[in-house]
Amino acid sequence: MARLAAFSPAVKTLDESIARAQTAERLGYESIWTSQLPDARDASLVLAAYAYATKRVGLGTGVLPIYTRHPTAMAQMAATLDELSGGRFILGIGVSHKVTVESMWGLRLDRPVDAMREYLDIVRTSLRDGSCAIDGELSSARWAYSGPRRPDLPIMISALNPRMLELAGERADGVVLWMCSPGYIRDHVVPGVTAGRQKAGKSLEGFEIVAPVPVCLTTDRAAAHAVFRQTVERYANLPYYRKMMDASGFAAELASGDIGERMLDEYAGIGDEAQVRDAIRRYREAGATLPAAGPFGGHKGGAGFEATLEAAAGA
């Protein structure tokens, strides 16, 4: 099986979420990733439940927002979750969005690249050295961690724009994407992280590009397109994603409100097994080192999570 991950935010019941993680492990997936939604369960605790219910599969956050945890608290959580999972945890962090950070949490999203750089430095130093003394403009920490820790625990950041992609290449172990088309990965993500790696005197070898791929094994493509169209519309209303989608060649469709099959099929694998697998291959060929199959349903023709994940496993 080629390298492949599963992307599965927690669903309605925790038992079903755990069962999905176990399914991904049984099918041979390398890792399972979950995101932190503003109105959903704490993703780190969900992964703790996955850790106890699985034995081998890696566990990644794709991603946790930096503004809800001080970087020392993030380091504590990461080290603890890595310890209880037996060294299987992968930390993915991101800045989230202005509407969430400022309107929902009452905080300020200012200078996101600088904020991420300082935050990442504190988390990285704390996990590597067991302590840090960093006085930044936006984040500071003078502390020590006495618990078990893995100094080289992988830390990845969410990035879409050139400056954040370059920061990922320079200082992180990888980048975690979302709603990135294969074309955007090829034309923007890979060059952006490459520039950062070169700045740090490193090659791309060992650098992870995690790309969630929405997939749906279905007998009703039109109904599945209708479901996925709602997802695209929702993220197109967020400035970071809209800028990326426009740069991906879909500005006209989004401006007119006419999101057609061409755009939907560029982002997702919808249809039979061949169409599901083809989408994953396209992401892989564009430069994603770790495509992450993200099954979705929501319509009568959908085959369901397990069948879709099983179909994707053949890519």
Feature tags:
alpha/beta; 49% helix
- Largest beta-sheet characterization: 8 strands, parallel, barrel
Query: Within the largest sheet, what's the order of strands?
Result: 1-2-3-5-8-9-10-12
How many helices? The count is 12
Q: Strand fraction band?
A: 15-25%
Please provide the ordered H/E string of secondary-structure elements: EHEHEEHEHHEEEHEHEHHHEHEH
Could you give the distance between the termini? 8 Å
Structural class: alpha/beta
Helix content: 40-55%
Please tell me what the overall shape is: globular
Low-confidence runs (pLDDT<50, min 5 residues)? none
Number of DSSP strand runs: 12
Mean pLDDT: 96
* Radius of gyration, in angstroms, nearest whole number: 19 Å
Would you give an account of this structure?
- This protein is an alpha/beta fold and 315 residues long.
- 49% of the residues lie in helices and 17% in strands.
- It has an 8-stranded parallel barrel, surrounded by 7 helices.
- α1 packs across α2, α3 packs across α5 and α6 crosses α7.
- The longest helix is centred in the middle third of the chain and has 18 residues.
- The chain is globular and about 55 Å long.
- The termini are close together.
